[in-house]
Design a protein that fits this description.
Helix content is 4%, strand content 47%. The protein contains one helix and 34 strands. A hairpin with a 4-residue loop joins β1 and β2. The longest helix is centred in the N-terminal third of the chain and has 16 residues.
Amino acid sequence: MSDLFMPKMPPALRKPFAAVSLLALLAGCQATPTTELRGTGDLGVVVERATGSLAIVDTSERRILDRVEGLGDLSHASVKFSRDARHAFIFGRDGGLSRVDLLTGEITHRVIQSGNSIGGAVSQDGALVAVANYEPGGVKLFDSETLEEVADIPATWIDAKGETQRSKVVGLVDAPGNRFVYSLFEAGEIHLIDMHGDTPEVTRFTAIGKEPYDALIGPSGRYYIAGLFGEDGLAMLDLWHPEQGVTRILPDYGRGEERLPVYKMPHLEGWTLAGGEAWLPAVGRHEVLVADSNDWSLKGRVPVHGQPIFVMRRPDERQIWVNFAHPNNDVVQVIDTESREVIATLTPGEAVLHMEFTPKGEQAWVSARDSDRVVVYDTRTLKEITRLDSESPSGIFFTDRAHRIGL
């Protein structure tokens, strides 16, 4: 059921717009008021989960420009950007899909499209927004300009009793060729949607492993890799050759030979590729693993402070930044990719949930949820530059993601 609405202009923006209108009148009734033009390449957003709001930030001036409220349940919310990087699409846990104008601070459109959603993606041509849903399980596609529904694709499968069930959808990403890829948790399947024609063409890959819980796609868009909660190892689909089916890689990845307590399963989006190597969080261990990205053999282990969650590379690939699961989640460590040694341990605050680099990597922004702040670091000196007040910040997303596959 949809709930389209057009909210009024936020109070914080009324004054500047009113001032512009007054200036226009004083200038002699010009047809078009003069306003400051600006791009969006140095903008981004911070999800404020406790208040259901979004802080729009400027990474050049390192400050919050505006705050957008009324976005619903933003626990575990994620954000994608439009092709022109002007609009942010926010995927809320309550099934809400919102479209926010970064320049005006307005929610231009909002729909409640399911009972529980877990993320989304924007198509290669920018025309479609796809949403992954837990309840009811499936994928919905929307027009990126209007959020009108284009397609509803239930995630159905046949259980051991021969009955049709619906599965939770996880790990939804965009792929080259105007395609989307995602995994079905209960079904143990990967599905590929091709949106070239008028109607979606769905290809199913079955028996890929037990309970895929998350997935990633490499920066080239060739490999889609799903993590398995129900067994060790990972399932990989080569999108250059989908006819070859799904193969298994890193067979020992997961809980491994020793069954250790796992405080939080790491996000596969937190994997990173640097210098022909894949850097990935070990499950339940105080280690970052290093694998050869050609044959996926394990090449090394780097001891770290706790159980890693996000393992993210600086854009020049010289550093890897790592945050950790509870109870060791007040620390960020920095690893030198050449020496594979931890070169810094940073303490930005309590409950560090996410990190984001500026497009060329001179800054890293870190959210410390329980300290109600975002801390900005200089990645060359590893010194703190500034702090921004933010209530329970979680995900940080910058607009350069608009032009990167899978982000």
